[in-house]
Amino acid sequence: MENAILFAPELICLLMGLVLFFCTVLNWSYRTTRGIAIASGIAMIAACLWTLSLEGEPFFPGIYAIDFFSQLIKTALAVGFLFVVIASANPLTVDRNGWLEVPLFFIFSTLGMMMMVSATELLTLYVAMELAAYPVYIVVALHRNADIGGESAAKYTVQGMAASAISLYGMSFLFGTFGSTYFSDISIPHAATQPIFYLGLLLTLAGFFFKLGAFPFHFWAPDTYETAPHPVITFIATVSKVAAIGILCRLLSLAMPGGWESGHAQTALMWASVIAMSLGNLAALAQKDLKRLLGYSTVAHAGYVLLALQTFAEWGLTAALFYAIGYFAMSFACFLVICEIGRSEDRITIDSVSGLYKRAPFLSFTLLIGLFGLIGLPPTVGFVGKWFLFSAALQRGQFYLVLIAAINAAVALYYYLLIIRQLYWVEPATQNTIKPTPLIAVTAMATIILVIAMGTLPGPFWDLAARAARALIS
Amino acid sequence: MDTLTLILLTTISPLACFIIAIIFLVQQPRAAQGLVLFGSAVSLLSAIGLLAQGPVEPLRFLWFQSGAIQLQFGFILDGPSLMFGVVVAFITACIMLYSIGYMAHDPSKTRYFAMLSFFAWSMLSFVYAVDLLQSFIFWELVGLSSFFLIGFWFEKPEAAGAARKAFLMTRVGDVGLFIGILLILQLVSNFDIPSLLDPQTGLSTQVSPGILNAITLLIFIGIMGKSAQFPLHTWLPDAMEGPTPVSALLHSATMVAAGVFLMIRLHPLFMAAQDTALIVLSIATFTAILASTIAMVDTDIKKVLAYSSISQLGFMLMALAAGSLFAGVFHLITHAVFKALLFLCSGIYIHAYHTNSMAEIGRSGGRRLKATTIGLIIGGAALSGVPPLAGFWSKEEIFAQLGHNGFNIYMAGAFLAAFLTAYYTFRMIFLITKPDQAPASDHSHPEPLNMKAPVLILTLGAIALGFFGSNIAHGLGLIPQHHSVILMIPTVGVVILGILIAYLDYGRDNAPRTGFISKIAPLNTLFTNKWYIDEVYRVTIVAITHALSRILHWIENHVLDGNYDRFGLGILRTGVKSTRIQGGWMQLYLGWAIILLAVVALYLGLQ
Amino acid sequence: MTLESYLLVGAALFSLGLIGALSHRNLIAVLIGIELMMNAASLNLMAFNRFVVTDPTTGQIFVLIIIGLAAAEVAIFLSIILRIYRAYHDIDAEKLTKLSG
Lengths: 474, 607, 101
Hints:
heterotrimer, A: 75% helix, globular, B: 607 residues, mainly alpha, 3 domains, 2 strands, 2% strand
């Protein structure tokens, strides 16, 4: 029973997934299915909050850990799932025959991510990672135009499968180095000096870098962002990023304290960070497609997060976790608006948001706040979060790294400002107003409040992140 | 009332008004207007209350703490912040009052007043900030709210462009400032301004002079952006596209003054960094001359005032860099009053005659608006430094300081700038009051009372403020020095010379009505074209951007993709389809990733 | 047979798979290449299991699960290929370049 309580969020997720499966079998209406999905999202959040401060290792000791870190990330994942389901009120870009499957695949992918952040053993981690990935491969393909859907799904899937195969090959080396798949054995530093270990670690990280969209596995991001159906890409851009940052924190925390932190792993991460942020921002400068632009921006943000992670310090982990939650809110604010304004458009270019201020004042305000966050303007979480990330690197004395990041943040202003200009200062092409439903308006309001609240009163959120980071390290 | 209540009333009431107005009063512009005005009055009265209480210890509150790092927010209540706080609140209140008339028929009045209120909140919070990071946050917010106010008439494409230019350009400076702040964090992990400035234990004692020079120089880059110093000054004249009251608020008294105020705040650091001080002095002097020469030839009244602002900000920075805190603060305060006055006067003319051209205003009968013309003359005289108006006393202090410290070249530059100031100001006055042809018919309506009242108040301020110099010095904790009359003679001399030449060129009957500078053709062309600085930017920065885009495009086509036929399209010019950094061949992406991994693995293997 | 020889075979398999995935135009061949990469990982795991690890079951379980997941992966990817085939009547990877136009 105690095990079941510890496992409650995943159990509810699984059960509701089965219920949603029956919805598709019985071919219920999309309204009902989405209602059930929303209810299950709320139930998952409740379960996560209920188990928030519990600790333990249900069922199989050593391979599955429930701690504050995992439960915090799970809460974020559950909230993300709920928000994404709410945002996909009219998934017109999805094949009409596939509507019912969308919440179903989302919930199974969420289940995979939940298990991923709790996994403390390589095999569990691998299985959870694949469980999180497969449903997303399918929903990307569910675009209403078979050619667009098939093409973007093929690109995403080939790269995803290759990344996970590389990851698996790396895991085999980790297994060989330590003779065990348990994280508790892997964190022992004695064997961690051989080249084979570094090779294994590097290859293992590939799969997670792919999820995060970090250099050098970022190539899928712009294409998939541009072409995947809006609700799907909302899921990939928000929920999946939280999980990716979470699992990277878990993996890298093995190196702390005094493990295999310094040296090659740190150098590799540092370069990945610098290149990702520079490349993402420079490439975004030339984009006209709004979703593609956000795809490059996500690459740049992955770079910022890696900046904190490569410090291998508790402060860096905390900053990364804090930023993960903040980034979720900021990018959700942007994608929620994209889902709403692009209900029936396949491509959202920068011109699509022209004069949105006149057509949908509240939505454009939501997008504005999201963009302010991504720029890093106070008083949004973008500013405080970047400040924490930068100060993590500064504490290690990496001033020049932070210098590059600061200049990057300044360059980024330019392309975000282009969007803001279109939003407020260009005449709309059409006059039809867009009125969000009350539920979506409330969600948008909640997102805005989260972005502002984390920016003005970071204390409580930081404490949560710090507690989670401590749970990881101890 | 105790200090905490007063300071909270000062800073929070504009914010509260902003929130209430923007959420609840969008449909009731009159109520929003009244509320915002009330909030501004509360803020002004509390600021005056604080000033009356005199300097007290800073108030500090914990904003965020984790381990060794703590961030605080709070209020520093010393001479500069108390006095400048009152000036900000006062000018804001005047401008809100004036805006009631000026914006009477604007459909989105609520948004306008709410943004004014938001601006007042960020500016006041910046002035009172006790922590460097807090300063930076509100510094950014000041920039953000001015971005919205400049672009308020976003239907005008020029306004939108100007707002973007202002934001981007000041952000260039902000990056410098931000890096400077990061450097301070790296070195001393402390942002508390009073303890950073402490002469015994502060920053200047903890780092080497070279580092201190670097830090202050980085901070000065931020100041250059905000206070529109060369070469980051070109956004300010463009920003005149906003409503005139906004120009009066942002580009005379408050937003651009934020840069100068930051230098006042961190003055001891700049004094300890000798090299930086010299650089500041040079740039400020050059900017003062450069901006005055452009103002000499411009015909748009708001542009003239804008360049004049740039030039006067240069004067303030000169004073601070030469070592006189008092002269800087004094000129900041007097300038805030008389420049706001001049902008408000220009706003009345523009409102009445729908033209920005000074000659046109004169021809339409600008002098018939009696109160405004008096305001213009008094404000102009104060700007030129005609004794005994406000500007004379504060400029006098600057000259005295430059002479005192033996900065002779800079002193000469300052005299040149002062001469030019007198010249272009009286050129403006003569163009408006002595038109070349008699105004046709009198169809102008007298200025409304709520626009006239602020002008009158500010006129009185411009007359009287000069005599409060010693009070301001006391407020800063300094003993005012009395300068002998003989020292004032050259100052008065250049001013009289400037006025005289302006009179000869524009004022007397049968005046040529062209400036003396037009006889020197190359200089005239240079000044008219604003020293070609925008063009230089266009050639250099834009060219670099294009080159970069071309490189990216080349990589896209040749390295990542292999579609050679698309080469040659400029990346920024082409449409959606071809602006790709990557081609579509997915295996190439994967290949790139693998090659990178292999290189790293090889590197590791060789280690 | 030593551990090294197994690892070398594994590396060879991995490289072959990689080359296959990178060089083939046919999506099914790409899929086969990726399967080869996973098999290389499986072989590595078994080799380490035999020579290094004290507990002999871990690697075997790992490999069994990889085989299962690989089958699922194939099913998913084939369905995507089917969808592409319906749209293009072709499964040539190089022709999938609509996105970058």
